[in-house]
């Protein structure tokens, strides 16, 4: 593993432990050349996924981009980092085990919406406003009615 600080290819693993409920291995590394310390994560990748964009362009699937989508929607929300990681890992596992090598960006967006709906209602509305391209106040009213109906069905759900 190349050192992110000096570029040396001679880094050493100082500590390894399971992460993300055993779905990854977290490794603490040190560079003997510059003394820099950094963390890497090792995950199983079942297959190489491609994302088919709405424009027709195709791009390699990027787990970090998926994670950033969650982080943006959940910014300043009281959701534990481990729950976010589990949601992202769950989506990645479903995509990889679907048998498809090409997934539409729309399918990924729908899975993110479902996961956010279970994690946090405010984040769900934030993401939906961008994903569904809200352009009028009515769009917000519809999604808020949907969230309100969910809370009415299950009063124990916090939003």
UniProtKB/TrEMBL annotation:
UniProt remark on cofactor binding: Binds 1 zinc ion.
Ranges of compositional bias, category Basic and acidic residues: 11-21
Protein keywords: ATP-binding, DNA-binding, Metal-binding, Nucleotide-binding, Repressor, Transcription, Transcription regulation, Zinc, Zinc-finger
Keyword Amino-acid biosynthesis included in the entry's annotation: no
Pfam families xrefs: ATP-cone (PF03477), Zn_ribbon_NrdR (PF22811)
Region (Disordered): 1-21
Positions annotated as zinc finger (unnamed): 3-34
Domain ATP-cone: 49-139
Known role: Negatively regulates transcription of bacterial ribonucleotide reductase nrd genes and operons by binding to NrdR-boxes.
Family label: Belongs to the NrdR family.
The name this protein goes by in its record: Transcriptional repressor NrdR
Record organism: Shinella lacus
